[in-house]
Amino acid sequence: MSQTKPFTEQTVLITGGSRGIGAAIAQRFASVGMNVIIHYLQSHEAANEVARGCMKYGSKVLTVSADIRSKEQIIKMREKLEQRGMIPDIVVNNAGISHYGLLSDVTEEVWDQVMSINLKGTFLCTQAFIPHMISNKYGRIINVSSIWGISGASCEVVYSTAKGGMNAFTKALAKELAPSSITVNAVAPGAVDTEMMNAFQEEEKTALQQEIPAGRFALPEEIASLVYFLALPESGYITGQIISPNGGWLT
Hints:
The protein is α/β, with parallel strands linked by helices. It has helices at residues 20-30, 44-55, 71-83, 108-136, 148-151, 157-177, 202-211, 220-231, and strands at residues 11-14, 35-40, 61-65, 90-93, 139-144, 182-187, 242-243. The protein has a single domain, classed as Rossmann fold (3-Layer(aba) Sandwich). The chain has a seven-stranded parallel sheet with strand order 3-2-1-4-5-6-7, sandwiched between helices. Strand 2, helix 2 and strand 3 (61-65) form a beta-alpha-beta unit. Helix 3 (71-83) packs parallel to helix 4 (108-136). The longest helix is centred in the middle third of the chain and has 29 residues, at 108-136. It starts with 10 loop residues before the first strand and ends in an 8-residue tail after the last strand. Belongs to the short-chain dehydrogenases/reductases (SDR) family. Keywords: Oxidoreductase.
């Protein structure tokens, strides 16, 4: 197991880190004093608010804006991080959007948007930072997927397809990077109490909770704890796995 520096001195990049699960992940890593990079697209003030919370732990924190659908912007983001001496040892591909509706009503534009943010963005961000990890013979790539990428969901065909692609990407890349002591895993949560749930009516949320054996939605902090665990040096033999914290909803 190779490791270039103590865990708490490593740097983590969280895409889509300005809210929800991403914000919780940023806080979890900051709580042990790690260097944290919070990526966002347009939510400048929200990202800064998360950054202020992380700084309370004494962490070095940087916010960066980039459209992860654009290779040019990803390269510019990497150059900015290089200038700041904050190239990530851990990349958490968390940025994503969902879509709810019948497949027959899905436009080509919606399909392209969901695929680009969830899948292409994961590819571009990962590709940009792999060379640094290979050079160090150490790294962690953790993709935030979804339970629907495993089981599929009616009226969420596009989102399920994108997350299913992310899961396949995870398994294949894990095999490719294992010789370089780089792990690649995906966390595929069930229903989580974030803004994504706002698309559902209260009655629908109640019905959904009744389907879950645990009887509730996950907290973002619970997902963040699993992401943190997978990033630990002692988790170096776990790779190519799709782990679904879902309260017993899917077993």
